[in-house]
Amino acid sequence: MNPRSYAKLILVILGVLLVSAALVADRNPAKFRPTEKAFYADERTANFVRPGLVMKVTKGEIAADGTIRAWIKLTDPQGLGLDRLGVQTPGLISVSFLVAYIPANETQYVSYITRQRTTAGKTATQATGENTGTWQQVAEGEYLYTFVAKAPASFDKNATHTIAIYGSRNLTEFELGTNRADAWLDFVPAGGAVTKVRDVVRSSSCNKCHDQLAFHGGNRRSIAVCNMCHTPQTIEPGSGNTVDLKVMVHKIHMGSHLPSVIAKGKYVIGNADYSDIANPAPNMDCQVCHEPQKVSGAVQADNWMKAPSRATCGSCHEDVDFASGKGHPGGPASSDAQCSQCHTATVVNDFDASIPGAHTVPQRSSLLEGVLAGIEKVENASPGKKPVVTFTVKNKAGEPIPLAQLGTMRLYMGGPTNDIPSYVREDAKAAADLGGGRYAYTFTAGLPETTSGSWQFGIEAYRTVVLMGGTTKERSVREVSTFKVIAVTADGKPMEPRRKVVSTAKCATCHTQFGFHGGNRNTAEACTFCHNPNLVDNTSGESWNFPNFIHRIHAEEVRYPGNITTCTQCHENGTQFLPLGDNRMATVNRMAPVSPTPAATNACLSCHNELPAWQHAVANTTALGESCSVCHGPNADFSVAKVHAR
After folding, report:
1. Which CATH number is 361-500 given?
2. Which helix (H) or strand (E) holds 543?
3. CATH architecture for the domain at 49-198
4. pLDDT by residue (tens digit) across 219-266?
5. 386: which of 95, 137, 337, 446 fits an S-S bond (Cβ 3.0–4.6 Å)?
6. Considering all CA atoms of the chain, what is the largest pairwise distance in Å, rounded to the nearest integer?
7. Do the Cβ atoms of 611 and 603 come closer than 8 Å?
């Protein structure tokens, strides 16, 4: 082939690739997200199937004889009606119904539909739903459902009633999975505005970690729907535990920290044992879930501090006996009305008896002066030299903190920044005092003679502070600085900081008190010094490289609350996609079938840790490197985004 023809062929190939990339990038962009299977569907299939499911309750009615009716709509995401039987439109749709009311003198629902559930010879009443009533099609995608259950003749026509629906659309035959949805409608049977609701926490607050609530098979996806069955009305018969939402959710999130579990007990609901749950946020950090109204929109967002009850508080504080007063400094409490007399919503001092005060996260106490450590500059960072770091340590008021007050004052040096294969950490408490909270420290370790590229430097500091000294609330708090990192060039070439794969902000969505190893390593950047491709467990030889242990912990060792296939919950800027880029190091992992493990294989198989996957990866790796991106690249048939889509 002559050079001109070869050049034309290259241009044609590039054109095809660019067009293909554009087609993938623009595929169904307005209709679906890249995390959804429908985003990758063939256009003709998508137009025919119209994947997705949207439910809506448009009207509720209770007749004088107690007959309950609901008008609902079933549509695709564009609002086009769907046939629930899957005849006129693809996909059989299953729908179930709930109906409940809030009694005049109560704050939670009572369901009109109940069942008797027996477990291990024990029977209990439970709120439930139904799906065996009478259907009537009103229009395309619009239906009237008449309940089997009836309201009693004495039902309160002026009370808030709620009808909820939940269900799924089966599109598995089109390789589009099962689409799920729920919806609800508040109404007053006598007519008029709804003035009383149950709206304490919104689904959006839960979904920060849970990345789409989906329980009881996945169809119940909203707190508003959970509220209708998870009331004091419902008991789990096997354990005898209530599944009242305000009790059950607190206990589940407390999990391994429940006093009963610490005392070698168990917290179970049915067949589910929640005794090993470890809340990624501090248990006293109530506003992780109870977000303010201006954030969540919940009408009763302040209930957690304005409407305390023995049931709610006792769900975490199990070692308090309100009847006898044991474990309760205020003595016996025979009524919830007594709670707010001492436990107000207004903080006078941190750690006081007010509800926000009593739940102060110690590390965020206003009584702390703060430890602010930072690196001003790094000098002498060149091959064979010992870098000199000028740093500052001050409090929030800008006042110097003497290094002698600190429990730890350390500086880190690691590089090159492609994967930080080596690092050193040195105690800098003996640094030269430059005055005004400024210090200078010369590393005892020098940069290697063969140093090239960029290197990064980090700083951490803490001191132990006694708060409320001499009182019954005296406590020691480790006051830590935010771990700071800067990068410098060691060879005169342009400085390149380490790539940003995950961010502290994303981690802090669930880990609201982010900090490990005593709390000092409290940014994602801090982790990159030690958790590099060469770090292994001394006993097992297992890798503690950052992608290995983070994937392993979230996928295997804890009950990850989100959807493990939603990589964007942690990853920044498409860093989960292949190819990973140049200069990635192989990972030492003596527990892996292949060690050192090439970068892409290591990252992906730290989740997909099965022998067939390892065999597949090995078969597609040669002396020239990994060929993973051929099949799993951004525009490939088995791209990372596509195979993780839901």
Report:
1. 2.60.40.1930
2. none
3. Sandwich (2.60)
4. 999 999 999 999 999 999 999 999 999 999 999 999 999 999 999 999
5. 446
6. 96
7. no
